Amino acid sequence: MEGHHSNDVDLFLRRALIVVLLVLLAGTILLFVYANYFTSRLDSFEEHLKYKEPAESLPDPEGSAAEDRTTAHPDNQPVRGQTIYVPAYSHVYHQEGDPHLLTVTLSVRNTSLDHKITIQSVRYFDTDGNPVKSYLAKPLRLNALATAEFLVKRSDVSGGSGANFIVKWTSDQSVSNPIVETVMIDTSRDQGISFVRSGTVIEELSAESN
């Protein structure tokens, strides 16, 4: 009788162990599937945010009435074009003068609520003032409140610590000044670095100019 009871206990324990193992296996599979799904979503999100070259011509929003508006901007000294100098740093120095490489993003933001502007050219110059790269093969139309971005990769050291962009833009209408700035960043080391520099207008086509 005791032997029979012992066999029942052993059988029950084995079955319980199998159930526990199956539950653990199912949990592991679900965790693996969820982890893969989460990683896939994260990769897709990062890919969506990854830098893309500006299109040669940005599309107009459908049904937009921007071209029909004539709102003035009296508080922001409306202009019809500018040439802007923007500092850029493909590296800065640290410790004993060692270079710290940086990724540079040039951002051109149309602040007009109503009108497009045209970016005529974006040129990149090195520390010695030599031309390095021209970013536009033809003018780029930028919709109201739209932004165009231009990238200098961290591995591109051609500009140096005293690099700069020269940005030229025009508009058929008198518009508020765009915001033109560079963002420098590096996160490859234990301590990251980032800073922003704003552009300086060196030539201007005023609202009264013909």
Instruction: Estimate the strand proportion.
Output: 35-45%
Helix count, DSSP H or I runs of 4 or more residues: 1
Shape: elongated
Poorly predicted sequence stretches spanning 5 or more consecutive residues? 61-75
Total tally of structural domains: 2
Helix content: 10-25%
Instruction: Say which CATH homologous superfamily of the largest domain is assigned.
Output: TM1070-like
The helix/strand order is: HEEEEEEEEEEEE
According to DSSP, the number of beta strands is 12
Radius of gyration: 29 Å
Q: At the third CATH level, what is the topology name of the largest domain?
A: Hypothetical Protein Tm1070, Chain: A
Instruction: Estimate the mean pLDDT confidence.
Output: 83
Q: Supply the CATH class of the largest domain.
A: Mainly Beta
Description:
The chain is of the alpha+beta class. The protein folds into two domains: 1-50; 79-206, TM1070-like (Hypothetical Protein Tm1070, Chain: A). The chain contains one helix and twelve strands. The chain has one helix spanning 2-49, and strands spanning 79-87, 91-94, 98-101, 103-109, 117-125, 131-134, 140-142, 147-152, 164-175, 179-186, 193-198, 200-206. The strands form three sheets. Strands 1, 5, 6, 7, 9 and 12 form a six-stranded antiparallel beta sheet that branches. The chain has a four-stranded antiparallel beta sheet with strand order 8-4-10-11, with no helix packed on it. Strands 2-3 form a two-stranded antiparallel ribbon. Strand 5 (117-125) and strand 6 form a beta hairpin. The radius of gyration is 29 Å and the shape is elongated. Residues 61-75 have low confidence and may be disordered.
